[in-house]
Specification:
Helices cover 4% and strands 49% of the residues. It is mainly β. The chain has one domain (4-270): Jelly Rolls (Sandwich), CATH 2.60.120.10. The mean pLDDT is 94.
Length: 283
């Protein structure tokens, strides 16, 4: 089976009064072609727009762009309280549930990054929650003679593997493209190519799709080689993981397989079993 292309997904601007603004990709519009990715937001945040809140049933991933003006502070009910600088990544496997908060590390510097929600299959919906992270200097890189640069945030590329290993397979690559690179889309996997800046041609099985900044395309249908080519320097992300062909029920920040699992997650939260995050003070 050949690789299939979704329609182009254009990022839509939205925000919350200026404190949190995103270019949000409507992945629901391409159905299972985006699985296991549920949410993909290119965000900027200032102040503290969201209080501590619960998550369950998926992985909440935040990557801080290398050129971000500031870093991100992440706190959770597991007792983690970390600051991730530009070029770093935080991967929170929410599993059966935890309380979580993210805010700028410095009040006068606005972080810029990607927020990604990655679905978990039924066998891991109730796994123990865990925070995984890498700082910029811990992210391995691949470079070509043409100047193409790939930061391997999660998964692997051309024999280079990340030390961040989620409970389920996933690939997340931050690509600075000068000319072109190719990757192999594994059988039964989907991929998303999101262009931040510049323009990119996506080629697979004789088909091609041109993407400009702020646009994405989902790839599905079967394994095979995919080439990403740029007429001039461009910045993009490639996300890839196995298709999860299971029911998905979403209630706020709970993402489960059934309504009864949602009700159970709500009960765990309301009864305090997801823990608590103490009020934050930067005094």
């Amino acid at each position: 089976m050949s690789v299939q292309f979704s329609p182009v997904i254009a990022a839509q601007e939205r925000g919350t009064g200026g404190a949190f603004s995103v270019k949000a990709l409507d992945l629901a519009g391409v159905g299972d072609s985006a699985s296991p990715v549920i949410v993909l937001d290119d965000f900027r945040v200032s102040d503290r727009p969201f209080p501590p809140h619960p998550h369950a049933g998926f992985a909440a991933v935040t990557y801080v762009f290398e050129d971000s003006p500031g870093g991100l502070r992440s706190r959770d009910s597991l007792g983690n309280h970390v600051v991730t600088g530009p070029g770093g990544i935080v991967w929170t496997q929410t599993g059966r549930g935890l309380i979580h908060e993210e805010l700028p590390a410095d009040s006068d510097r606005e972080p810029h990054g990607l927020q990604i929600f990655v679905n978990l299959s039924s066998k891991n919906k109730l796994a123990a929650p865990q925070m995984l992270r890498l700082e910029a200097h811990q992210v391995p890189e691949w470079r070509s003679e043409d100047g193409d640069r790939v930061r391997v945030l999660v998964g692997s590329f051309r024999g280079i593997s990340s030390a961040l290993i989620p409970v389920e397979p996933f690939h997340l690559l931050d690509v600075e493209l000068q000319r072109e690179i190719s990757f192999e889309l594994q059988n039964a996997y989907n991929a998303i190519v999101y262009v931040v800046d510049g323009s990119v041609r996506v080629l697979a099985h004789g088909r091609r799709q041109a993407l400009s900044g702020g646009n994405a395309v989902a790839l599905s249908g079967g394994g095979g080689p995919v080439t990403l080519a740029a007429p001039h320097p461009s910045h993009l992300f490639m996300l890839s993981g196995p298709l999860i062909g299971e029911p998905l029920v979403v209630h706020g920040s709970f993402m489960m397989n059934t309504r009864s699992q949602i009700d159970a997650a709500i009960n765990r939260f309301e009864s305090g079993k997801m823990g608590h995050v103490a009020p934050f003070s930067d005094d």
